[in-house]
Each structure stands twice: as structure tokens, then as C-alpha cells.
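Escalation from tier 1.

The customer reports that the assembly of two entities below gives different C-alpha cells on two consecutive runs. Tier 1 could not reproduce it. I'm attaching the input and our single run for tier 2 to review.
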Amino acid sequence: MSTGSSHNGPAPVWTRDAIRGLFDETNGKIDPRIYTDQSIYEMEMEHLFGRSWLLLGHETHVPKPGDFMAAYMGEDPVILVRQKDNSLKVFLNQCRHRGMKICREDNGNAKAFTCSYHGWAHDIAGNLINVPYEERAFPKSFEKCKWGPKQARVDTYKGLVFANWDPEAPSLIEWLSDGTTWLDHMLDRSPAGTEVIGGMQKWVIPCNWKFAAEQFSCDFYHAGTVSHLAGVVAGLPEGTDLSDFKLPTEGVQWRSQWGGHGSGFMVDNSSILEVIMGPKVVEYWTKGPAAKIAEERLGGPEHSTQPVGNHMSIFPTFACLPGINTIRTWNPRGPNETEVWLFQVVDRDAPAEIKAEYRHHNIRTFSAGGVFEQDDGENWVEIQRVLRGHQAQRTPLNCQMGLGMSSHDHPIYEGKIGYVYSEEGGRGFYNQWVRMLTEPSWSTLGPQADAKAAE
Amino acid sequence: MRTLLKKPVAPLAMEKVGPELQHEIEQFYYREAALLDRRYYEEWLKLLADDLRYYMPLRYSRVVRHEDEEFGPEDAFANFDDNIVSMRGRVRKLLTDVSWSENPASKTRHTVSNVIITVTDIPGTYEVDSAFITYRNRAEHQVDIWAGERRDVIRRADNKYGFQISKRTILLDQSVILANNLSIFF
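Tier 1 run:
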């Protein structure tokens, strides 16, 4: 990887080869310009955010016909709307006349979306249905049906709502690859499914979105070393201290077969879950009647009640901590900023007391003011600040943890598995990142293409 | 007795209290602000009652017709919803050497103003509304400024400061939080 001077000639042109050179998977090296370069960011907007399944929210954010929630796909504002036939639509929050938002609220229930500029009115499906002075002022050739806001593909997975601009992209279920196992660990423990503990928290972190996404794919390491010591202390029972806390050390990390997803968790003790969520949630998750149902539904304790402290990232910007049940989308705002949109789910049929515990401890630990989340924000901000430096931008970063140390023959867990302290999930993330920016056609990029190649 | 968020736009208490009570409660608030700015967290904890609820609801942009839904309902997710136990945990975190988001510490300045006091039926218990502008600077270049309203229930207490806070509802004047975290108290 070149760290040579850029004094000779103009700024780099990001050819496909140049992009591939930014991530050296074989040797575990990252060129930090992926986190700072404006033209790379713009390529991400077109080739990555323009073609990926992006998490918007949960079905219970919009339960009734007419319910809507404003959201984002990349930097594009969209509206998620429940239709009369109970389907969901997602469309660009942009009037096709001069581009004003047709919905200026964060959420609510609507019978129509009317632009506040010239009064163009749209139904809840996003069809343009009324244009003031249409008869008198518009030519006969003007056809309303062609001028509604741009529609996205919408699909759901066990309550989670995703959208994608690209009609050629794989289906959502194909996109999720073998990540559905670990999503089910959070979303499919009960026949009643999950629901949101209402609302969406939003805050702005001045860092590149990929730091956050990668961390959730592979970084138990930061939690098991120093990042969250004080967060742990905040949750210790009174009269105990860190010397009484026995952090688990046995666990696995998983890298998806396709798509850049990653997850990891511990298996030897539940202390990390207990210090975050408290003993009642741990009991509910690992031992009580709901846990027994989860074990049956998910094929045994190894996939339901034994894994704790799960972290997970679904490429590109959906991250979650199953068990804690915090879910978030990293909305990019330029290469140097991310707007976090966070919500929380709970089993729909959990007892009221358990739902209250979930709510209390999530707000306490994983929210903008959360005793764990606060310290993540600190690291990412300083990293981005350091990367203003010319030398810093050209000094390769080490991504070698677990290099060559994963395999497909774990006795219990399927897929590419290694020790929990690893960056294999992160290398998978960056591998997919490179592919999205360098492979224009799904005929090579898609999961079926990979499966075919493997044959 | 008010519930925490009876109405986002609360009716104003028009009956004025006497200057002595007004002075007492304002002085209490100034001392509370000084404790936070000087980072005397254990001392600040003594100002919080055992039945504390410290609550900052989420806030949304809604049209005026729906302004009663501007703040998230009380069982929805929130920016803060602490009781005295979780608040003690937060202070414990701050007192370690390893609370990275506050070590080095933020430089804060809590300014409190617009104190409007309502005497309640319970002797010694007051509903107090106040406005705040809280400034934070971190490291070299980070500046965060928050404004908002606090709706407190305070009661007389046998401590140096004269009162304890039983309920604090913070209505922040932001919907998207325009800062990397909320690692300080309001």
C-alpha cells in the first residue's frame, strides 16, 4: 500500500483498482482515507447507499393505515407509510415540482401529503392526486401519474422494515444471507414477535459511519478491555466493584457468507448482560418460561439462551445488540458525520414488568446519554479529528485480529466462526464495501454469483 | 400534583410567591448548577431525593395541530429516565478514572433562569419551572449548547442546600440531539 507523497500531481482518481488498494484483506490493513475522502463518500452514496437494503424502523412504528414516519436512506429523506391494505410504502420526501418536502412532520397519521409550496397533493401511497389550477395552467401533456415522488422497494424481516432504491438488487432475505440466524436470536424468540418501545432517538456524532458499523460487526474487544469499564461500574450492584465482576471470555465471532455482516457473543457467563440489563431481564432471557419457548423456536440453548452480549452489524448501516435489543441505523452526513437513529424492541408478549426493565436499562446504557454509548461517542469523535491530519490519513491501520483464524468447522455454530476477539467480521464488512464500490453488476456482486463461483 | 408531562405547553402559574421563597429556591438552583460545573457529583447526589425521577422525553417535530404529541409519551423511549439507583450508578461511573467521555472532563456552564414557583398543597413541596442554557466545551474544538426547560418538584430537606429534587422533567429544545452524547446532567 502506498504511503508515498501526494505532492506529485493532482488528487488521486478513485479507479476501481485504487479503491481495492484501500483495503488489504490478506494482510489486514486499512487506508484511513476511506473515512475522510469526500469523493469516496460520494461514490458510497451512489454505489453503496443507492443499492443496499437500509433499515428504516419497525412495523410497530407505523401500525395503522395512514401512520407514517419520516426516515432517511443515506442523506435522502423518505417517508415510510402504512397503506390501507396494510402494506408499506417508502418514497422520497420530495415534491416533483420544485423539490420541497411533502411531509414536514417526524411522524403521525395522514390522509394526504400536501406540499406547502404550491399545494401539490399526494395520497398516502405517494401518488400525485391534485395539482392546483391543473386544467387552466398545465398543458394537456401533463400527466399527474408520472410526477409522484420516487418510490423505493420495501421489505420486512420479522418486524424490521428495510428499503432499497435498486430494482436489480437481491431480495432482502438474500441480502441478509446467513445473518438471519442471529437476527432470529433477537426477533423470533416468541410467537408474538417483537414490538418497539415507542419512538426513535436521534443524535449526531462527528465521525465517519463506518467506524460505528464496523464496531458492531466485530468489536467485542473494546468492551472486553477498557472502553466500557466505567459503564460496567455504573451497573454494578451497590457494595460491589470491578474486582467482583467476572467478564466472560469464551465466545465466538461470525462473519457472513456473503454481504459484509458480522456478529459475536460470549457463552460462558451472563455477567455482561446482567450488568447492562439487570437480573430480571437476564432471568427472562436465559431461564424463565419465555426462555424455554425461545429455546424451542431457535433450535436449542446454543442459539437462544447461551449467547449473551451479542453485537451485530448487517451491512451497511443496521446495527444491534440482541439481548439488550437496541437497534440503530447509522445515517451518513458527509464523510465526517453520522446521525444515529435508535430504537428498541421487546417481545410483544413479555410481561409489563419486563418491558419496563428493558426500557429503563436501554435508556440507561445504550442511548445518547447511555453509560455505555457515551464512551463510544468519545472514541469515534477523536479518531475523526485525528484524521484531519495528512500523515494520519496515509498511515495504514491494523486490521489483523483473527487473521486466518476462522473456519467453517465449529462444532456448534454454523458459518465462518472464530474466537470472539477477532476482526473477521470487520474484514467481511470492508470486503463488501470494496465490492459495492467496484462491482457495477449484481451478476458478479450478488450472493447467487458467489454461490455459483464457489461450486 | 402535576404528573411529569401533563401538557407540553404548561399553564403559567400567575400567582407570584414572595421574594423570600423566590430567593431561596433560586439560590438553591445556583448552588446546584455550581456543583455540576465544579464536578462535585457526590455532593450533587445529596440534592436528589430517594423517590427521584429524572426524565427527559424524546421530542419530535409535529405540526401545531398535533403539538400535544410533540413529546414522546411516558412509556416510550426517552433521552433519560433515571431513578435514584441508576443516578447513583451514573455518579459512580463519573468517579472512576475510566469514564472516557468525561475524562478529560467537559467544561460546562449551567445557567438557570426564569424560575417560576408554584406552591402546592403539601407544605414544603414546590413545583418549580426554570429555563436553562447549558454550555459544554470538550477537548480542543468541541462546543455544544443546549437550551430547554426544567419542570421540577422539590421539597424542603435537612441538608446544607435546603431542598431536594424529587422529580425533574427536562424538555430540551432539540429533537435531533446535536451533540455526540449526553454525558452531563441538566
